[in-house]
Amino acid sequence: MTRSEGNESPSALIDAKVAALADWRGATLARVRALIKTADPQVVETVKWRKPSNPSGVAVWEHDGMICTGEVYKDKIKLTFAQGAALEDPAGLFNGKDTGATRRSIDFFEGDWVNEDAFKALVRAAVAFNAGIAKKRKG
Prior knowledge:
Layout: H1 10-20, H2 24-39, E1 44-48, E2 58-62, E3 66-72, E4 77-81, E5 104-108, H3 116-138
Antiparallel strand pairs: 1-2, 2-3, 3-4, 4-5
């Protein structure tokens, strides 16, 4: 497992971040994290972009490349899918304002419900997309 600053495992850093959020945001981040791990048991958790203004960094889930990031804001949890624009989203989960050529995001607000089956399918689609890119690189 990749180690982060201070020799703490990324999973431990994410655990600490969830525990520090003693409100709906911690529960939501824990819930989507569990769904990601269920959808892809081989997912690798990392923490990136640690800095003084954000010492706990940003949770990142990877498999053959970045699947998504989990950012915490005052009013929402934002999951940004690195290659979201290339993924089918038949359930319409992508609701964030990022509509560029590559990324798409899901914003979770207090009280939001997630279609767990559709969310796990989206994670699996991201993993499959990354695997296809990795195969082409090796190819």
